[in-house]
Amino acid sequence: MTSSFRTSIVGLAVTLCVLTASLALRAQTPAGSVGPRPNVGPTDRPVVNAAAVDRGRRVWALECTSCHAATARGSDQVPSLLHSLLILKDRQGSELGPFLKKGHPTQSGRPSASLTDAEVADVMQYIRQRINDTLRGSALFEPGDILTGNATSGAAYFAGAGGCGACHSPTGDLAKVGTRYGPVDLQQRMLFPVAARFGGRGGAPSRTAITVTVTPQSGLPITGQLIEQDDFFVSLRDASGVMRTIRRTPAVKVAVEDPLRAHHEWLDRVSDADIHNLVAYLVTLK
User: pTM for this one?
Assistant: First the structure.
């Protein structure tokens, strides 16, 4: 067998492998499937482009399925990407790209740093579609799948490893929460809590409102609910309801306090089993 013929055979085998895996992945997403309904999931959820998802599916089939599975849920040894903080923060490869540039194992043995920016962005679109598949309104979403956990294990996780009891109480803020919300809404609120808006002029911010304290080079600190911030300005609403915008300079100190930070950090370590167990426990709080 000549070297060129052997190379052609190997190339054909790889192509067939990728094609088979791609078809298997495609079969899990019905043609014409739509995303979740509005106001489901994080409020800044990126838009998913169908063409990019198809391109990302091919890269995923070649490089990622052996560890992360077709659904990106991983395995007992590999964590799910669906609630990875890095993935949830990503916008078109902004987080995943630098991560892969540092080096990460791939299915084909290709250096992860060699993935192009376009390939990384397409892979993120594929993962983003897998996340959307878990949200209400998706063609693949089934509410009946929510209650698959163990309530006893969920109660133990709530009081122990989950650290939920540090901020919440089944007889306090969560009393009868299983009556107020169904399993789907409970999981939604648990995974994607939304900071409350300011109560208006003269009103007090909710305990979940993100607050910011801006300390100028001279003068008193200014504290209020964070409205928006970037590299140039910080906008906040003070206790009297007045909106203020302060220019950021190296001399201006900005300290942000997010009461939901623990929820955001928890997403990076919680397992699928813990999530389902917690939901199974919370629905029992009648």
Answer: 0.49
